[in-house]
Amino acid sequence: xxxxNASNGWFEKFKRSTGIHSIVQQGEASSSDTKAANDxxxxxxxxxxxxxxxxxxxxxxxxxxxxxxxxxxxxHITAEEKKIPGHKPMKDWLTPALCANVSGDCKIExxxxxxxxxxxxxxxx
Length: 125
Known about the structure:
Blueprint: H1 8-18, E1 21-24, H2 34-51, E2 59-63, E3 66-67, E4 74-77, E5 93-101, E6 107-113
Antiparallel strand pairs: 1-4, 2-5, 3-5, 5-6
């Protein structure tokens, strides 16, 4: 049996003729206040200068999300479909927290946060 192999041009023409289009399945809008961020940089720089901090004393710690079972965020559907039937996004993620000082000579071991199957905090005592 011969394997089907389509070019990008063929797929684009196929999408146009069938009404299939690309959609985002899930997503989160993100916005940031760039003015506030720039103001903070100036204030923080002044604090570092006034208090005479060195690079070894200044740490940055932040968390990030790691979706380890996440499906692709885009797919192709027909024009008549509004959503993917039976689609429920995976919500399995890890939250690593990373921390290091400005000079880079002190990197704290990453902390991993994950949800509990049986959270003790919600149990009746």
